[in-house]
Amino acid sequence: MSVVRSAPISPEEKQSALEVVLASGIFARSVQLRSFFRYVCEKEIAGQADEIREYTVGIEALGRPEGYSLAEDSAVRSRAHELRQRLDKFNAENPAAAVYITIPKGTYVPVFVRRKHSGMDEEDTPAPVPPMSVPTVRAGAEPRHWKHLALSAIVVACICAGIAAREALDSLKHQEPVSSVLVDAWGPLARPAADVLVCVGTKMHLLVRPNLPRNSPDPRYPAFPDLYPLFKRHRPLAPGTDLFMEPADRSLAFGEVLAAASISRPLSRFGVGYQILPEVIAPLGTLTNRNSVVVGIPMDSNVVTKLLSSTVYTIEYSPAVDELAVIDRRAPSRLTPYAAHLATPEKVNVLYGLITVMPSAGVIGAPKRTVVFSGLGSTGTDCAAEFFSSAKGINELQNSFRKHGKNGFPASYQAVVRCLSSDGIVLSNECVDSVELVPSIPPQLH
Question: Taking the CA of residue 333 as centre, how many other CA atoms within 13 Å lie in the half-sphere pointing to its CB?
Answer without folding.
Answer: 0
